[in-house]
Amino acid sequence: MNPKLLPLILAVVPLAAMPAFADGKTKAAQEAAEFVLRKFGREAAKDGASALARRIERAALAHGDEVLKAVRLAGPRGLHLIEEAGTHSKQVARLLAIHGEQGAVYVASRPKAMQLVVRHGEKAAAALVKSRGVALPAVESFGKPAIRAFQAIGSPQNARRLAMMTADGGELARISRTPEVLAVIEKYGDKAMQFIWTHKGALFVTATLAAFLAEPEAFIDGAKDITQTVVKPIADVPAIAAKEGAAEVARKTNWTVVFLALIAATALLVAARFRLWSRLHFMPTKDS
Hints:
It contains 19 helices and no strands. It is mainly α.
């Protein structure tokens, strides 16, 4: 229950009904405390049943009935997280009530993760819980496209792969078309993530990535071979380099100097040939 509603309730609910209202909340808290004691044993028993029930009741009055479900699922640790979350207590209670202890405790116990949940809503919470927190850097960097991509992935292994590729220094963190790649993963799920991971070495050549993004389904389903998209440009590299090198040399050459040098060399060659011809034709003989 929202604490802000309490004054309104007090104004409109007859005083005679208030004990029943309080008794109902107290009874629910006691039942939740008994359940937690049975499920979590020694961890829950250190405060005693009465003290635990009072804590649960206070939290439920302040943050709503989702506290009761959250405590049943996440136990004393969940209750502690709700109590310590401050302005995010209601969101933590909802997170634990929906997703339970596994994954949700990890998210609820990290302020940065909770900030992303507050900013992006339930879908961010689902992505973070599903990936057991590994999606956090990607969601922080890429927001909703990353959230949708992680939601489309069913395999924990592929979730870890996507997290690695979107982390600092990862392949998807170094390119400008990451949202488009994430959109492909969102659409084709694990098949897309598996393909991207397998071909990450070849895929992130600019021309190859452009071809993949233009027709992702054809590559993912095997109708087109990503290696052929890479091999052809690589085979052409020597010819392209030679052509571009020649063009660069031509552009930087001072052709006036070249022509003058050619003229001078030609003149020297002609002069040398003339001297040789003269020497052969005018050389004195023994009879002269």
